[in-house]
Design brief:
two-stranded antiparallel sheet
Length: 357
């Protein structure tokens, strides 16, 4: 048995020395030390040998196995080093190529990324997404939202009407929607309460400056159920603010007026750029202008008059109530990423766009 062990060691040593690369060396290891190899199997059958031969055979086989393992390890180090040296020579670096890695092909625009992040927050709070047409009727855009006939937003100077518009007060006259609120009415006509939806999408108003563009994006929300209160609205918006701007944020509500909510509030979030209106370097915060609060959206409890337009669909204002809110997606993106001019997001300047996504 000892002679056979010596033969195995000799054959294995020759195979290890003859291996030209790490793959060939691995094949040699499997051949001589693998589970089906002769030497390991010999060690497993030592107990079946005559008592007089067990000790000597077991010792010789163990020594042979350890010697081969050491030889393989040494040869592997030698071959790996040689392969690395060869790759370094063969894979020459072209110093004329740019040092930066190749640019990634395609990415989410900052507007798309922020919109999806906002949607994810509200979906996590139990809201569904609803969408509607961007070309709307006066009825859905104004009348059914309790907008007075004398409200300035109905004027030609404040709304894009689709020409020809003989009578801008005709409920069937067409216009580019000025907010996504018409989707609220359409959703209530399709589904009885309870209803929890958000309405993201494009809207249009004839404004153009650093904080306004003729076409921009809104995300509005509507919750209609029994026993819905202003406290539910504040809790929902607090969860949203903390998800978007950080867990330390707080929100506050200030009285305001909107035609479709009563009571109506403006919603502020505590400034994330300063402490009590003062930045870390001791200056007045330019973001909140020293107030420690930043206005982010308008909201309120749904006016019973709005529910009156959809009473026949199950929205009896004596039985259900709810809250609504709306915010500009661009404004959230500007605050979140410190973008100073809304128009930068539409200029397609790669220097800005490649910072996000």
């Amino acid at each position: 048995m000892s002679e056979r062990i010596d033969q195995i060691v000799a054959e294995a040593s020759d195979a290890i020395a003859a291996a030209v690369d790490t793959h060939a060396l691995e094949q040699a290891r499997i051949r001589f030390l693998g589970r089906k190899a002769e030497l390991p199997n010999l060690l497993r059958t030592v107990a079946e040998l005559p008592p007089a031969e067990r000790a000597a055979t077991g010792k010789a086989a163990n020594q042979a196995r350890k010697a081969l393992e050491a030889a393989i390890e040494a040869r592997e180090t030698e071959l790996a080093t040689a392969e690395l040296d060869r790759r370094l020579v063969e894979d020459r670096i072209d110093i004329t190529l740019p040092g930066d890695p190749l640019r990634r092909i395609g990415r989410l625009h900052v507007m798309t990324a922020v919109r999806r992040e906002m949607e994810d927050v509200f979906i996590g709070l139990g809201f569904n997404i609803a969408e509607g047409p961007e070309v709307e009727t006066v009825y859905y855009n104004f009348d059914a939202l309790n907008t007075a006939i004398t409200h300035p937003s109905r004027l030609m100077t404040d709304t894009f009407y689709i020409k020809p518009a003989d009578d801008i007060f005709d409920p069937e006259a067409l216009l580019l929607r000025v907010h996504t609120s018409p989707v609220q009415v359409r959703a209530m006509e399709r589904q009885p309460p309870p209803l929890y939806i958000i309405m993201p999408g494009r809207v249009y108003r004839p404004d153009s400056d650093a904080t306004h563009t003729p076409q921009f994006h809104q995300l509005e929300g509507l919750a209609i159920d029994t026993d819905v209160t202003l406290a539910d609205l504040k809790g929902t918006l607090l969860a949203f603010a903390r998800a978007i701007f950080g867990e330390e944020r707080e929100v506050r509500l200030r009285p305001h007026f909107f035609p479709f909510t009563e009571p109506s509030v403006e919603v502020d979030v505590s400034c994330f750029n300063c402490t009590d209106g003062v930045t870390a370097d001791g200056h007045r915060c330019p973001l909140c202008k020293g107030s420690a609060w930043i206005e982010i959206l308008g909201a309120g409890m749904v006016d019973p008059n709005v529910l009156g337009f959809v009473r026949q669909y199950g929205y009896d204002p004596e039985q259900v109530q709810g809250f609504a809110f709306g915010m500009g997606i661009e404004r959230i993106a500007m605050l979140k990423y410190g973008i100073p001019d809304l128009r930068l997001m539409y200029d397609n300047d790669i220097r800005l766009l490649e910072q996000f996504g």
